[in-house]
Design a protein that fits this description.
By secondary structure, this protein is mainly α. Helix content is about 70%, strand content about 0%. It has a single domain, classed as Rhodopsin 7-helix transmembrane proteins (Rhopdopsin 7-helix transmembrane proteins, Up-down Bundle), CATH 1.20.1070.10.
């Protein structure tokens, strides 16, 4: 029974890995070929997609290796576990950056592009990955189970152990530092941010100052509302995928005698890895720009069909239409003085010659 469960788990992991790599490569590819996707929000989405690609190409194969129970050096197994933590933390921080970006776009629409520049967005991405590495690699600096294993005689002088996540990662670190410090607070903060975003958008859409002649602001906030719903769905799926495993970690720490069924643990792990594969599906069904780019990639590169080039849509070239209400319009051209019609000069008529009088 255990062998069949493990075989099913490995098969599911392989399918998730393939779907995650292909789907998120499509996301990066779509941003590359569609100029209308190259703004700050989609810059953070690309960062999230890169983390998900790494999950499919690196983390899942390592997780399969861990599930087999290979005998490895303690620090080799610890590095594998820390890699999972780094990528998880980068995904959380990318989602937080996306939420803050959407909040600023709705809160200060007329000054958004002056505040959120491409350079600042790039620095935010670098900061997210730097924090992710610091948080994820903290067990490599000493907050791990090596001392405990040495005290109870589970590891010898060669430090070779059965490579499993709970053997090398301290549950104190996972619960108090990782979950309570760097997972739960960002999730709660993102929840509050999206609630505020929806409140501001609905307030603007219901505002009486938008009369029938002001359709552009309503279109802007309608578009922001649809995109916010899609990104909030991504956040919801992330929370649903990762919270079960963290709850199991809390049970392991606070109730160590409680037996955890292996099937339940496998399901929790599959949920965390499956989250990396569902984001491209959400983008395809919820964001029209991604759906159009995916169709172009499929037709042109997989079906060998000629697909029309993607162009920036007119709505993407314009800024927030409310800017025209805050900035003075350009002065009209000075009126030109009417040109006076020149009088027509008729050619001189020949004067009649006097006839000589007869003598």
């Amino acid at each position: 029974m255990l062998l069949s469960t493990q075989s099913l788990y490995i098969g599911m992991e392989v399918l998730i890995a393939v779907a995650s790599v292909i789907g998120n490569v499509m996301v990066v590819w779509a941003v590359k070929i569609n100029k209308s996707l190259r703004d700050t929000t989609f810059c953070f989405i690309v960062s999230l997609a890169l983390a998900d690609i790494a999950v499919g190409a690196l983390v899942i194969p390592l997780a399969i290796t861990i599930s087999i129970g290979l005998q490895t050096h303690f620090y080799s197994c610890l590095l594998v576990a820390c890699t999972v933590l780094v990528l998880t933390q980068s995904s959380i921080l990318a989602l937080l950056a996306i939420a803050i970006d959407r909040y600023l776009r709705v809160k200060i629409p007329t000054r958004y592009k002056r505040v959120v520049t491409p350079r600042r967005a790039g620095l935010a991405v670098v900061l997210c990955w730097t924090v992710a590495f610091v948080v994820g690699l903290t067990p490599m600096l000493g907050w791990n189970n090596l001392r405990r294993l040495q005290q109870n005689g589970s590891v010898g002088a060669d430090r070779v152990i059965t490579c499993q996540f709970e053997n090398v990662i301290s549950m104190d670190y996972m619960v108090y530092f990782n979950f309570f410090g760097w997972v739960l607070p960002p999730l709660l903060l993102m929840l509050l941010i999206y609630v505020e975003i929806f409140y501001m958008i609905h307030k603007q859409l219901n505002s009486k100052k938008f009369s029938a002649g002001h359709a552009d602001p309503n279109k802007y906030y309608d578009k922001e509302l649809n995109l916010a719903k899609s990104l909030a769905l991504v956040l919801f799926l992330f929370a649903v995928s990762w919270l079960p495993l963290h709850i199991i970690n809390c049970i392991t720490l606070f109730w160590p005698d409680c037996q955890k069924p292996m099937v339940l643990l496998y399901i929790a792990i599959l949920l965390t890895h499956g989250n990396s594969a569902v984001n491209p599906i959400v983008y395809a069904f919820r964001i029209r720009k991604f759906r159009t780019a995916f169709q172009k990639i499929w037709q042109q590169y997989f079906c060998c069909m000629d697909a029309p080039a993607l162009e920036i849509q007119p709505s993407d070239r314009k800024e927030m239409p409310l800017e025209s209400h805050h900035e003075p319009p350009p002065p009209p051209p000075p009126p030109q003085a009417p040109q006076k019609e020149m009088p027509k000069c008729d050619p001189p008529q020949p004067q009649p010659q006097p006839q000589p009088q007869p003598q």
